[in-house]
């Protein structure tokens, strides 16, 4: 028998500790503690972020343990009166992969997008990330685009 799916929920302003747990999952999944753990913002910053209509975090939890999640940003468009959602990060803890957790997270995001009237959801994946590409290909239509990081003046990428 397949294990039960973890519960999936959208985080709110009172979920700062849960968002910090998601940061640990992301650090481990992406093997990038410097980005996700070493310079975390204050509780007030995260509270304000979770209070904003421009940021969304969704987590999958087995009991109280965060085993996966996604984050992203609402982008108001200028050429039409609509908003799109940019899925910025998605990760599942190693021992919970290939159990439908990532799909459940995206399905919750799709429902949220409909509830909030987003015109669409978009995500980027690295060409070498086969599992992510397979997941997104099952759930959406791919485009072959290039991504460029441009550093602000006086900084390095």
Topology:
Elements: E1 7-10, H1 16-29, H2 33-36, H3 43-51, E2 55-62, E3 65-76, E4 83-92, H4 101-116, E5 120-123, H5 130-139
Parallel strand pairs: 4-5
Antiparallel strand pairs: 1-2, 2-3, 3-4
Major sheet attributes: 5 strands, mixed
Mean pLDDT across every amino acid position: 87
Number of helices: 5
Fraction of residues in helix:
25-40%
Shape: globular
Which class best fits the helix and strand makeup? Answer: alpha+beta
Let me know the number of strands.
5
The name of the CATH architecture is 3-Layer(aba) Sandwich
| CATH class annotation | Alpha Beta
Task: Identify the CATH homologous superfamily.
Answer: Gcn5-related N-acetyltransferase (GNAT)
CATH topology: Aminopeptidase
Query: Separation of termini?
Result: 47 Å
Low-confidence stretches: none
Question: What is the string of helix and strand elements?
Answer: EHHHEEEHEH
Number of domains: 1
Major sheet: arrangement of strands: 1-2-3-4-5
Overall radius of gyration: 16 Å
Strand content: 15-25%
Your description of this structure?
- There is one protein chain.
- With 157 residues, this protein is α+β, with helices and mostly antiparallel strands.
- It has a single domain, classed as Aminopeptidase (3-Layer(aba) Sandwich), CATH 3.40.630.
- It has 5 helices and 5 strands; from the N terminus they run βαααβββαβα.
- The chain has a 5-stranded mixed sheet, with helices on both faces.
- A hairpin with a 2-residue loop joins strand 2 and strand 3.
């Amino acid at each position: 028998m397949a294990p039960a799916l973890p519960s999936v929920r959208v985080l709110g302003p009172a979920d700062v500790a849960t968002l910090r747990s998601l940061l640990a999952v992301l650090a481990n999944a992406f093997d990038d503690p410097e980005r996700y753990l070493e310079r975390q913002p204050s509780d007030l910053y995260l509270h304000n972020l979770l209070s904003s209509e421009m940021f969304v975090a969704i987590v999958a939890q087995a009991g109280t343990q965060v085993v996966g999640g996604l984050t992203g940003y609402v982008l108001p468009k200028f050429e039409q009166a609509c908003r799109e959602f940019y899925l910025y990060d998605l990760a599942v803890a190693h021992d919970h992969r290939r159990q439908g957790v990532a799909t459940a997270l995206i399905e919750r995001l799709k429902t949220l997008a409909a509830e909030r009237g987003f015109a669409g959801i978009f995500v980027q994946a690295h060409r070498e990330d086969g599992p992510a590409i397979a997941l997104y290909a099952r759930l959406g239509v791919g485009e072959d685009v290039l991504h460029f990081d441009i550093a602000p003046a006086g900084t390095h990428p």
